[in-house]
Amino acid sequence: MPNWGGGAKCGACEKTVYHAEEIQCNGRSFHKTCFLCMACRKALDSTTVAAHESEIYCKTCYGRKYGPKGIGFGQGAGCLSTDTGDHLGLNLQQGSPKPARPSTPTNASKFAKKVADVDKCPRCGKSVYAAEKIMGGGKPWHKTCFRCAICGKSLESTNVTDKDGELYCKVCYAKNFGPKGIGFGGLTQVEKKE
């Protein structure tokens, strides 16, 4: 039967959806106000919607209804999800139980390896991530910790020197560790004669 009198019909309320108020999902049209999770009624958008056949859900409710169940499939690593979604009116499909995963993995996951491989800042001892890493003296430093150990001056690749795992500006390094004598380290001939 032809669709007389306007646009497509809303997938939720079956009323006409005009172009200005239309959101499309899975080949169906919805009013912006009708584009809600079928379980919890949360407003959806293109980044939060999960469609299953003719039904739309937020990703959380979709996971509760259609996602994997059992040990290791909860909200965090290694937990048991006991949330059945009953308080949201979800009728979970009951099938044969899935085999439980072993409680201790035989191989460490990629995430666990990445966490273990994070470098530590020699100055503060905290983790240094790629976005905040500056290399100096062959070690990773936070941008805020990349300072002279004596005067506290912020360092750059052009004025940094290192000694025994600590960073110094060139001036402090020369005064404290450089050669001593006339013409070096701030001594003058007048000081030498006295």
TrEMBL record:
Residues 8-68, 119-179 form the LIM zinc-binding domain. InterPro entries: Znf_LIM (IPR001781). One of its GO terms (cellular component) is nucleus. GO terms for molecular function: actinin binding; metal ion binding; structural constituent of muscle. The keyword Disulfide bond does not apply. The keyword Metal-binding applies. Pfam families: LIM. This is CSRP3 protein.
